[in-house]
């Protein structure tokens, strides 16, 4: 009976101290060990007006009710996030921006506070609408490791849906490394507690790797930028997901200038012809790896693109034999392409045509295994002295193909299309143009001994 009368008391939990009102309330026995505020909760309401005091009291009361309910339920972080998102949406549907109670009391004028209260007249005391409008749902306070899990499992789920298992694994690994570095330096902090100073500690760590005061750098500026960017994106996406897109990002504007960035040097054309295409130069490689190297040299298609071709995109029996580099839309076997401009058709000429006649179903051994393919090829080239300099990698063959097209005076837009680079105006058409592409590529085709295939 006492609690029922208390609920209907218009001045419940109000206490006058001098001529100012305070909110004063006993913490329920069931949550006393969990609420760090002690036996009683006391808040100055900064008003001498009883009506205003009752309005402020209602907001504090709703907030405490929600807090104690969540403590008694032992609410987990995921449930807290769900409740918070629902509160944000519900507040917006009623015409208000969701704010925690403390921000409402500090940031909003009394007229707006009264509008919030009036919008819920007639609602039950524990109504979700009252919680939403009154800011009684606490914002989740995930640690950065928990925020990363949320990013993988919910926030970025649509973004990574089209990636293959290996692409997802590498995409996640890069972001896990960035967060691991952060945790190692400043701890597994709650997202709301991450400060600019924390971000600067991480920036200093990468600065010492990218541009040490003494000695040689052991990481590139792009590596440092990627790791800082991963943290910046995680922070922004997390708070945007919670409904706080305006949250100031402590990782903003912390990056590195790369003045020493160098493109991979291309292989000289005669080196490809006389060394790489020499009989026996690639014989120690298995047939699929050897086929990928030879097709790479004569198409410029990335090794990862070649490794993931399948029977449906290899067309050696067409009037103009070609391959189609495109994403796999199969939900059971997805794979995304690097960029929209990377989706293209590439005519097959010279050794590339012979390779795909031999491998019309592609290279299943290296499907979704481009990392192991790259390691194998670079090791073979190094062991067999197939690199002109220490600065070359197998990927340099892509730059060689581009240089050969330039030297052969192929049209710039055709070059960009065949390389999968962005074109400022609509791409070449199909059909008859494919024949023209083939004729242009024949101008730069490399001679080869059929035995190397």
From TrEMBL:
Origin: domain of life: Bacteria
Keywords of this entry: DNA recombination
InterPro entries, alphabetized: DNA_brk_join_enz, Integrase-like_cat_sf
Protein name (database record): Integrase
Database matches in Gene3D superfamilies: Intergrase catalytic core
Species, as recorded: Mesorhizobium opportunistum
């Amino acid at each position: 009976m006492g609690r029922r009368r208390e609920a209907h008391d218009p001045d419940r939990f109000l206490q006058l101290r001098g001529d100012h009102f305070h909110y004063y309330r006993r913490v329920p026995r069931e949550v006393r060990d969990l609420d760090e505020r002690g036996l009683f909760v006391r808040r100055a309401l900064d008003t001498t007006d009883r009506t205003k005091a009752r309005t402020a009291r209602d907001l504090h009361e709703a907030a405490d009710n929600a807090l104690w309910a969540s403590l008694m339920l032992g609410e987990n972080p995921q449930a807290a996030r769900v409740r918070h998102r629902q509160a944000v949406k519900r507040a917006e549907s009623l015409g208000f921006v969701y704010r925690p109670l403390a921000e409402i009391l500090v940031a909003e004028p009394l007229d707006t506070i009264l509008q919030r209260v009036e919008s819920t007249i007639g609602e039950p005391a524990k109504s979700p609408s009252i919680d939403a409008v009154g800011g009684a749902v606490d914002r989740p306070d995930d640690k950065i490791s928990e925020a990363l899990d949320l990013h993988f499992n919910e926030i970025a789920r649509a973004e990574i849906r089209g990636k293959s298992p290996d692409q997802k694994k590498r995409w996640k690994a890069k972001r896990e490394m960035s967060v691991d570095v952060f945790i190692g330096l400043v701890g597994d902090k709650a997202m709301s507690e991450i400060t600019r100073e924390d971000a600067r500690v991480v920036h200093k760590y990468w600065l010492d790797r990218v541009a040490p005061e003494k000695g040689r750098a052991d990481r590139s500026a792009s590596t440092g930028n990627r790791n800082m960017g991963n943290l910046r994106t995680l922070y922004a996406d997390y708070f945007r997901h919670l409904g706080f897109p305006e949250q100031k990002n402590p990782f903003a504007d912390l990056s590195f200038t790369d003045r020493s960035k160098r493109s991979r040097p291309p292989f000289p054309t005669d080196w490809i012809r006389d060394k790489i295409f020499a009989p026996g130069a690639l014989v120690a490689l298995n047939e699929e790896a050897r086929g990928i190297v030879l097709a790479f040299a004569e198409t410029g298609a990335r090794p990862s693109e070649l490794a993931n071709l399948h029977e449906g995109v290899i067309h050696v029996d067409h009037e103009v034999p070609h391959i189609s580099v495109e994403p796999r839309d199969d939900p059971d076997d997805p794979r995304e392409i690097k960029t929209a401009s990377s989706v293209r058709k590439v005519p097959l000429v010279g050794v590339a045509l012979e390779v795909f006649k031999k491998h019309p179903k592609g290279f299943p051994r290296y499907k979704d295994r481009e990392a192991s393919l790259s390691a194998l090829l670079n090791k073979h080239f190094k062991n067999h002295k197939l690199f002109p300099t220490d600065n070359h990698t197998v990927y340099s063959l892509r730059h060689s193909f581009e240089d050969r097209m330039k030297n052969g005076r192929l049209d710039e837009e055709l070059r960009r299309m065949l390389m999968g680079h962005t074109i400022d105006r609509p791409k070449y058409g199909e059909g008859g143009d494919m024949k023209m592409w083939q004729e242009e590529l024949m101008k730069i085709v490399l001679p080869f001994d059929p035995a190397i295939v």
